[in-house]
Structure formats: C-alpha cells, structure tokens
Write a structure and sequence with these properties.
alpha/beta; 12 helices; 49% helix; Rossmann fold; 3 domains; 7 strands; globular
Length: 315
C-alpha cells in the first residue's frame, strides 16, 4: 500500500495504516507526517473532556452527526483506557459510536493512553496531524476522564468542551484547580436530573471568580441522549472559534503550544538515546558510582548527557 498516495487521495485505509505506524513509533510515520506537515492547520480541533460517566461519548456522537448534516467531515479520536493485558485501547467509545463508523465522512480512531501523563500520548498528536492531512474539517478528541494532571488537551485543542453532570457537589470544588481553568465551554449533560440548574449556577459562579480573560465561557444545559440543546452547544463552539479568530493572543497560545511540544520531543529523543542498548553500560556505571557516593545524581546526569552528545558528534 502506498500510504503517501492513499493519504492524499482520501483513502481511509492508508490513513489508518499511518496512524498505526505512528502508534508503534515507526520512523516512517514521522517522515511522512513531516513531509506533509505544510498541509496541516485546516481542521478545527475540539477537545471533549470531563469526569467519567458524564456522557462525553454521547456528546461527541451527537455533535458529529450535526456537523455531518452540514456536510462537514469529522475525525474522532477516542482516548480509551489502556488494556492491562495487551497495552491497547479498550474500545468502549467505538462501540457506542457504532452507527457513525459506517459513515464515509467520519473517521473514528480509539487510542490507548499508554500511561501518558495528562492522558494524551504522543501518538494522539500524530493522529490529529494525520487526520488533518487526510482532510477532516473537524477533529474531536475525547479524553478518558479528567484528573488534576489531565490538562494536556488544552495544548492541542482549539476549543475545550467540559462535560459536567448534576450531583457532583463538592467534586466541582475538588477539580476546579486543575480543570476548570481549561474549559472554553461547559456543557451540563443529563440536565433532566435533579440539581442540573444548581450545577450550572455553581459553574457560573466559579467562572466569575476565576475569570482571567475577556472571554466568558458559556454554560449550557443539555440532554445529549435526547439530542436536546446539542445544537446550542455547537453554536457555542462556533462562537468560540469566531472569538479565537479575532483574539490577538491566539497566535501566541499556538506558538507556546508548539514550543512545549518541541521541548517534549527533545526530552523523548534524549531519553530514548540514553536508554539505547549501547549506553546501558554507561548508565549502569553511573548507578554504581552514585550508590557508592563517588558522585552525586546531578553530576551523573550531566556526565551522561555530555558523553552521549560527544558520542553522536564523533559518529
């Protein structure tokens, strides 16, 4: 299969194959993505996050169907928990979106977290780019469920939708420090339940308290299961995009995200280089020296970096 030709011709199998290569860390995937990187930047990237059980998959499903009615193509990256047995994704989200999987204008990919801090692995970034090159108009990234460290989505998405549910109570206070600040839109799902209006009011109050920009995130009560007010949520997403297009800070934010990604890739390359089989004796020798108090860990790390760098220059 000619992945390059297939990708540009809209061959879903070619795109899927390239994503698999990226997940496996294949160097060919990096080469192809690099070659066509100039074609990225056209898709709108929407992050869907929130606590487990909030209905993120249903919200994503309904939003995708609304966009398909507008003849927009949609990519969906469902970040699932990692299977403890295979290391792959537990395909719960793909099962729930089964009717979308037969739509030629929709590309669904379930991906494992693979232990990535923040809930997003490097392969998720690669997959976004592949779907962008492939020609998706919108790309949804549905996270596995929030936690204090799972804020990586803001570094990748143009718009972050926080899906909440009634009855969280003090949990809203518990998660606000790490999560509430990243939401561009708040959707209170399952609003037919008791306490929905109270939950929305609590979020509004917290947004007023934590407000740091001139943009005021919208809080929308929805019942995604019944497709109730999901159209209003889509309108809010479009409204946020219009705001971004006028916001002078948006370019700065994107550049900062690129800087963060580059630094992260450098860290990965350095660690991979140090963990190379050829360097195993070097690291073990340093371990012994630190254990015997002949050298401290800080000096050992610097020494390893210098020797690995020197080895690369000599080769």
């Amino acid at each position: 299969m000619d992945i390059r030709a297939g990708l540009l011709k809209g061959d879903k199998r070619a795109a899927a194959r390239l994503i698999t290569l990226a997940e496996n860390g294949d160097e060919d995937a990096v080469k192809i993505i690099s070659e066509y990187y100039h074609l990225t930047g056209k898709a709108r990237i929407i992050g869907i996050t929130g606590p487990p059980g909030a209905g993120k998959s249903t919200v994503t499903d309904k939003l995708a169907k609304l966009l398909r009615q507008q003849n927009k193509t949609v990519g969906i990256i469902a970040v699932d928990p990692t299977s403890p047995f295979t290391g792959g994704a537990i395909l719960g989200d793909r099962v729930r979106m089964n009717d979308l999987s037969t739509d030629q204008g929709v590309f669904i990919r379930s991906m494992a977290t693979r232990g990535a801090l923040g809930g997003l692995s490097k392969a998720v970034h690669d997959t976004v780019r592949i779907m962008d090159i492939y020609g998706m108009d919108y790309i949804f990234i549905e996270t596995v469920g929030v936690g204090q460290s799972e804020v990586d989505i803001v570094k990748l998405a143009d718009t972050v939708v926080m899906v909440m549910v009634p009855g969280l109570g003090d949990d809203i206070q518990a998660i606000k420090a790490g999560i509430m600040e990243i939401g561009d839109i708040f959707a209170v799902n399952k609003s037919d339940r008791e306490g929905a209006e109270r939950t929305a009011t609590e979020i509004e109050v917290m947004l007023d308290f934590n407000r740091t920009t001139d943009f005021r995130p919208k809080v929308i009560n929805i019942i995604a299961r019944d497709n109730d007010r999901v159209d209003k949520l889509l309108e809010a997403i479009e409204g946020h995009w219009n705001y971004l297009c006028k916001d002078s800070n948006y370019q700065t934010r994107k550049k900062n995200n690129i800087k963060t990604e580059i630094i992260g890739l450098i860290n990965q390359y350095v660690v991979k280089s140090i963990q190379n089989d050829n360097q195993s004796n070097l690291i073990q020798n340093m371990v012994e020296k630190v254990y015997d108090k002949q050298i401290d860990p800080y000096s050992a790390a610097i020494d390893i970096l210098e020797k690995v760098s020197l080895g690369k220059q000599q080769s």
